[in-house]
């Protein structure tokens, strides 16, 4: 390889010392949860940063998905993707909803709108796509189908914090968008999540559902759940938000360097150039094709052996797990693109304080692999 990469951005990452003043305020206020001051501050700050009208914070992204389905009273069947983290479909099962899987686009690995219409039945009530790796779905085509068949659209936007298209935040599309603020995400609160909605009435219902259905102290109006974010997590979110732009810029630089250094390696394909999208560079996925000297799994293990830890997001497909594989829509012949991608995908490490030497080591290692007998 050529010269060592040089990253321009030097983000100041939050430290324990930065967090101590927040902890002191929580301790002094004795307000630990139940919509305390940091909770409200973070909701307001996120609405402004993300360019959305209303946001409801949750203790994690899975509870946000579960509650989004409850908030819109979704029943019957929901069309979704098998190429995602298991929480996407688990949220459907927990609500007594039947997932119906359709294949993904070979370019984006997002749900393929051309496959959706044929999967609609009289029991279909919604579509739940995933903005995979933070790259937007084909929003216009999905919404057109939903409008034609009077279906709701709930986006699993776990990867999509801060992502924009030509119309602004992609979180403003569909009926609801559910976010994850897990520790592995671009923006995190250690554990956390949120639902983005478009009107005050829906936000009120969501906020009631995440607090057991309470209205005041003595009235319960819905079978809700305990999904409230604590003041500790909200405070961490406020701290993280201060450096998020620099963190994303650093990820952008790492993404560009990866692409440059992997561009001419036979059998390695880098996914999802940002194009007209303002991306968040939350993942760096590559496809390890048949022209590469070793298999994806051999490369995965070889990197782990030198203490580099890529992830096979998403392998296996959701449709291959025991609770889903008996569904007619889960058959592998119905999902050839997703099946092939799950056997080739490898997400390389990317994080704001990644050292240039680490990236160089990874790309040199990938370039140097030889076929084994």
Polypeptide structure, described:
This protein folds into two domains: 226 residues, Type I PLP-dependent aspartate aminotransferase-like (Major domain) (Aspartate Aminotransferase, domain 2, 3-Layer(aba) Sandwich), CATH 3.40.640.10; 124 residues, Alpha-Beta Complex (Aspartate Aminotransferase, domain 1). The protein is built from eleven helices and 14 strands. A seven-stranded mixed β-sheet has the order 1-9-8-5-4-2-3, with helices on both faces. A three-stranded antiparallel β-sheet has the order 12-13-14. A two-stranded antiparallel sheet has the order 6-7. α4 links the parallel β2 and β3. The longest helix is centred in the C-terminal third of the chain and has 19 residues. It is globular, with a radius of gyration of 21 Å. The two termini are 26 Å apart. The mean pLDDT is 95.
